[in-house]
Structure formats: C-alpha cells, structure tokens
Amino acid sequence: MRLLLVEDDEMLGESLQKGITGAGYVVDWVKSANEGSFAIQSILYDLLILDLGLPDYSGLELIKEIRNQNNKVPIIIITAKDTIQDRVIGLDVGADDYLIKPFSLDELFARFRAIFRRLGGRANLLIEYYGLTLNPKTFEAMLDDEIYKLSNKEFAILVALLETPGAPLSKSQLEEKLYGWDDLAQSNTVEVFIHGLRKKLGSKWIKNIRGLGYFIPKVPVDALK
Ligand code: CA
After folding, report:
1. What's the CA-to-centroid distance between 39 and ligand 1, angstroms?
2. Predicted confidence (pLDDT) per residue in 73-98, tens digit
3. 111 pLDDT higher than 70
4. Which CATH number is 127-223's, of 1.10.10.10, 3.40.50.300, 3.90.226.10, 1.20.20.10?
5. How far away, in angstroms, is 135 Cα from ligand 1 center?
6. Is 131 exposed, middle or buried (0-12, 13-18, 19+ CB in 10 A)?
7. At the topology level of CATH, where does 2-119 sit?
C-alpha cells in the first residue's frame, strides 16, 4: 500500500515517515500543497495523509481540488486546529477522517485499517478470499489452518492482486504500489516477492500471463487444483 504524506513540519513529517515505513507501508512525503497536488496526479495512491496548514495553499483547498478532479483517494486530515468548525469543513469538502495533533501512530494505523476495510466493503478487519485469509494488522496469511508470516511487500502484492481477481497487474503496476520515490532503485524484485508468495501459499494462488502480468484467479481456487 502506497501512501502520500503532505506535511510541512520537518520533525513531525520525519517521525511519521519513519513510523509509517516501519509499519510496512510505503510512503512518499512532500511539504507543500503544490507538491502534493503534483504527486496525486502522477501516482495512484491508496491513501493521503494531509496537514491543513501548508506554506503555499491550504489542505482544505487541496482536498477540493482533488475531489473536483474526481479522484476518490481516501484522505485523512491531520491538524492541530481542534475547533469543530475545521473538522466539519474538512469532512464536508471530501476528507474521510481526521486526527488531531498530537496523535499516536497506533491510532493512525487503526484509522488506515478502518478506511481500507470500508473501501473493501468488509465489515471485518480480515480480508478473506476462498479459504485464504489475510490479516492487515499482523501481515499474516492463513491458509488450510497454517499461518504464514509475510513480508510487507509480499502482503502488499497479495492485497493489490485481491482488489481485482482475474485481472492481471503488470510488473510496473505492482512496483508503483510497492516502492516509494526513495527506493525505486531496488525495483527489480517483484519476481522475488511473487516467488516467495508461491513458495509459502502454493503456486495456484498467483498466476502469470506472459507480457500482461500477475493475477489471482477469479474462480474458486479448488477448481484449479
Ligand atoms: Ca502545517
């Protein structure tokens, strides 16, 4: 899962980037609304974490701009302004949630999970697909009563493929979800993660069409045994 953080406070930005990366997410960090606007138009993010008070123009304006472009990326506002009015405006112009600074990383991650759960139309935390269960909190996969600990990149690949079963994602589409700006250099490793997943879960879960990419089969997997 690839996130964009728009925050002009150096110390908070640094600690958020470190904490979010440490939790297994990929995050790009920019420090102004203009840079945020550019990033949002260049890359398909799974989530935007947005400060409201930015040096060039306000986070509220950026939200309006994003929604006017019909971009539905989930947005969490992080703001020191704790008046009810600011939060109401933020939600009304298109944010999905907000946190008042200072907040704990644990709470931020819980909001992430809640948003991803709602997006997936799921009532539960767990992601389930024909006997395969993924736990976004622990990055574990459960299959046939076995629990497999996945690396955060392996987990991100599975989640991405499960968004559209049957539809192949190319290597570069997967790379975009797996790597931030800072680590594009190591981007020749999608195959390694796919190999790791197949080794853990069995090769029937991830199929490959040469030239098109990787996908999780749309039909019940038992039929493919
Ligand atoms: Ca600020």
Report:
1. 18
2. 999 999 886 677 888 899 999 999 99
3. yes
4. 1.10.10.10
5. 33
6. exposed
7. Rossmann fold (3.40.50)
Ligand 1 centroid from CA 145, angstroms: 47
Beta bridge pairs of residue 100: 79
Predicted local distance difference test score (pLDDT) of residue 24: 82
- Report pLDDT for 87: 81
Cβ atoms of residues 48 and 6 within 8 Å? yes
Length of the chain, please? Answer: 225
Task: Give residues whose Cβ lies within 5 Å of ion ligand 1.
Answer: 8, 51, 53
Other CB atoms closer than 10 Å to residue 63's CB: what's the count? Answer: 23
Cα(54) to centroid of ligand 1, in Å? 5
Between 110 and 219, the higher pLDDT residue: 110
Nearest to 140 by CA among 158, 123, 164, 122: 158
* C-alpha of residue 83 to centroid of ligand 1, in Å: 16
